[in-house]
Amino acid sequence: MVNSPNSSPEKGQAPTLGELRAEIDRIDRAMHELLIERSGIIDTLIKVKKSNETGSAFRPAREASMMRLLVERHRGLLPLDTVESIWRVIIATFTYVQQAYSVHVDLSSGDALVRDSVRFHFGYTVPVVQHVGALPVVEAVAKSRGDLGLVRAEAVAGGKAWWRDLEGEGKPKIIARLPFVERGDHPAALPLFVLSKPLPADAAVHEVEVWSVHVAGWSASASRALAPLAEVIALPDTGLDSAALLISVPQGRNIDQVLASLKEAGASVRASALVGGHATRYTVPHKA
User: Fold this and answer.
1) In percent, how much of the chain has pLDDT > 90?
2) pLDDT > 70? residue 180
3) Which residues, in sequence order, are bridge partners of residue 192?
């Protein structure tokens, strides 16, 4: 039974359609008022943080935590997809209000999946800038004040090792991996790395470390050796059997273990550099 302050149906009496609609209107007004209240807190937060002086307001560690808590407390008939998309738009938009930013994406192939993911995670208020290739995305982020870049977290046919441009102090870094919440039927399931200029230590998260590694002697056996330890994107590098690797090392593992496995498999490690990190992938358990 609807417990409305505007009506008092007798015990055991089903509410009328009018009463139910009035209750929905009341809840809608309350949700809107809460968003307005949230905006007031953000206004104060801007003054406290002085976001206009510190660049990007993006905080991947906090966002990952918020999305995990959202999933854990969700219940009822409303699909998790809807709840997640609403919160993603709220978070991304209020981040934009704190400090305006654009999202740079590689749409060289007119990728509908990338477009869907961008809108699911960032909504329609945040400007989206299209590029041809991942390297121009990295370059645009490097030249910006606080913009974000999105690139596929998987090998792309004919692609170049864009992550080499993340090596070195002051260069853009990987700060997140989307989606924050993973499940088999996710409407924006395409894995994407989020790039930005280096974030303050309290804003970044390195539950998973991401390394750029250059090797000679790359082979199928070397690839198999890494499979139990880390996720790897491999692209041809200079030299007949050389490769540029982007290696995501999960919690409980470290880069030394990965490099040792490469050497045991016959590969020669030429160089390695930490190029970012992100939260551990949060997977929603499958419900039978």
Assistant:
1) 67
2) yes
3) 152, 178
